[in-house]
Structures are given as C-alpha cells and as structure tokens.
Amino acid sequence: MAPSDGLATGVVARLTVGGKVSYTDHGFVQAECACTPHPSPTERNVPVLSLLDAFPLLLLLVVAFMIFVFGFGGADAGALDAPVLSMTIVSGDRLAFTTGDLFLLAGIFLLFIEVLKSTHTGTVTLLNHGFSTGVLILCVILFLVAPGFGNATFLLITFMTMFDVTAGFVITIVAARRDLAVR
User: Do residues 59 and 135 lie in contact, with contact meaning Cβ atoms separated by under 8 Å?
Assistant: First the structure.
C-alpha cells in the first residue's frame, strides 16, 4: 500500500488483519492483505452510557421541594414567602430573596445545564429526554393532587420541566439534522 492509498507518510496506524493487529509506519503496510482500520472507542464516537448525563437535573430540584414540603413543614402558606437573604443594592433598594425565589433561581440554573446537555445526540440524550418526561409527569401530578404543591413556585418549576422536555426534543432533533446534514 503506497502513501497515496490513504496513509500519509510518517503516520502510525493500527490495523486489524485477520484477527491479528499489525502496525503501519512511514505510510507502508507491513502486511500485504486487505486491512481494515481498527479505531479506538473515542474515534468511533461510541457513546459511553453515563448515569450523570442521563439523569435529569431538574429532578434534584423537585426532590428538594418535596423535602421542603414534607420534611420541613413547607406546606404552610407563608413558608415559601419567608425571607432567606436580603441586601441593599447600590440604588438603595432592598433586595430580598425568599425561599421560593431560591428554588426558582436553582431551577433556572439547572434548566440551563439541561438545555446544554440536549445539544448532544445519542442514546444517553434519549434516555435523558425520557427521564425528563417522567419528571414532568411527576410535577403535574404533584401540582394537581398533593397538598403543599399548589402554589406559583411549584407551578413555575413544573413549567421549567415542561420547557426542558420540549426544548430538549427540539434541540436534539436540530442537532441530529445538523450531524446528518438532512434538510
């Protein structure tokens, strides 16, 4: 095999020859037969199933809210409106964060990460979308049925999970089209 047949001079490539591995050097194959390239797993773009990538991060927010409602008596009407942090800003106005505000702030941050995760294509991303759909169903059921979840804060968290599901599917489809150059 000459360098013009696909191997550049000076490149060392790993080839599989009839079950045996041989190496090329300086653009010439050491064995004369039909050889096929044997790329590493990272060169093959084989998705490594990572539980963290498949895990919907907004579930952490929903579980934290459940702990707040069931564990710390957050079912109180005023528990979400209790000030947690307040400060005076440069204009002289007083900025106060309530418990509900902190839940929503954490939700916005986690939603941003979820949208970034949806730009990938592969099995892990599809698992993430399926799990995110389950989180959305859980949020809708909790909002409609469970006491302590029928408030504006949890409604906005439910909308965040709905946005995660819809935007995740749309962004993944667009990314897949771009990867496959289908129009």
Answer: yes
State whether 27 and 113 are in the same domain: no
Same domain flag for 114 and 161: yes
Angle at 168 between CA 48 and CA 157, to 5 degrees: 115
Is 42 domain-assigned? no
Ranges assigned E (strand) in the chain? 14-17, 20-25, 28-29, 36-37, 83-88, 94-98
How many domains does one find in the chain?
A: 2
Non-local CB neighbours of 89 within 8 Å, separated by 6+ positions: 95
Q: What is the pTM of this model?
A: 0.68
Instruction: Report d(CA 57, CA 112) in Å as an integer.
Output: 10
**Contact predicate 111/164, CB 8 Å:** yes
Residue 169 falls inside a structural domain: yes
Average pLDDT, consecutive stretches of 10 residues, N- to C-terminus, the chain (183 residues):
47 50 50 50 51 87 94 75 91 93 96 88 84 96 93 95 93 78 56
Q: Are 161 and 132 in contact (CB under 8 A)?
A: yes
Residue pair 132/164 in contact by the 8 Å Cβ criterion:
yes
Residues 161, 164: Cα–Cα separation, whole Å: 5
Are 173 and 108 found together in one domain? yes
Do 12 and 64 fall into the same domain? no
Q: Which residues span the domain enclosing 21?
A: 3-37
